[in-house]
Design brief:
The strands form three sheets. A four-stranded mixed β-sheet has the order 1-2-4-3, with helices on one face. It has a four-stranded mixed β-sheet with strand order 5-6-10-7, with helices on one face. A two-stranded antiparallel sheet has the order 8-9. It is α+β, with helices and mostly antiparallel strands. It is about 35% helix and about 30% strand. Helix 1 runs parallel beside helix 4 and helix 2 packs parallel to helix 3. The longest helix has 20 residues. It is globular and about 45 Å long. It has four helices and ten strands. The protein starts with a strand and ends in an 18-residue tail after the last helix.
Length: about 200
């Protein structure tokens, strides 16, 4: 099974995370940030990743460190669980509707962390959650996972729907990319022979 366990303790956050790429979409998530919990729970479900995550963070400052550090740890877990990426499909893309919102995401398990985030959020907050932290999460995730990720908002006016559409779309794109290709299960999907 392709799994990873990450423990990361800093002066700002204490995180424990386990990930199974070949799961059923089951999750137990407690970050101390309700909106992030919601996003990660639906991320696990739509990606069919099993995710157990606890984070104690400095919420008296704000949610920034928690969101960024959870992104770091989730990226580290994907990188560890994928190993050398032998047999994976490598690419995945999804255009996902979320009510009035339409989000396109595209993933390449390239070994090179890169984010293109073209999202226009109409409000600064969803509840108490700073909407700019959506980009911070994906930036931390892609850097640590070594994944190229494009997220593009094609339509949408509700910040909650836009952010939720991003997490659902990326989850489904990753689900496709990390899937094992039965025709090439023993091959690295690159003419270079490595993904870096």
């Amino acid at each position: 099974m392709r799994t990873a366990t990450i423990t990361r303790h800093t002066l700002e956050t204490q995180i424990s995370l386990t990930l199974n790429l070949d799961g059923k979409g089951e999750s137990r998530v407690d970050t101390g940030c309700g909106f992030l919990n919601h996003m990660l729970t639906l991320f696990a479900r739509h990606g069919r990743f099993d995710l157990n995550l606890t984070c104690t963070g400095d919420h008296d400052v704000d949610d920034h460190h928690t969101v960024e550090d959870v992104g770091i740890c989730l990226g580290m877990a994907f990188k560890e669980a994928l190993g050398d990426c032998r047999g994976v499909c490598r690419y995945g893309s999804t255009t996902l509707p979320m009510d009035e919102t339409l989000i396109l995401s595209a993933v390449d398990l390239s070994g090179r962390g890169m984010l293109r985030y073209t999202v226009n959020l109409p409000t600064e907050k969803v509840g108490t959650f700073d909407t700019e932290l959506g980009e911070e999460f994906w930036l931390a995730f892609t850097r640590c996972a070594g994944i190229t990720l494009h997220i593009r908002q094609l339509d949408g006016t509700n910040s909650h729907h836009i952010l939720e559409g991003c997490f659902k779309s990326v989850a489904r794109s990753l689900r496709t990319a990390v899937a094992i290709d039965p025709a090439n299960r023993d091959e690295i999907p690159s003419t270079k022979g490595v993904l870096v």
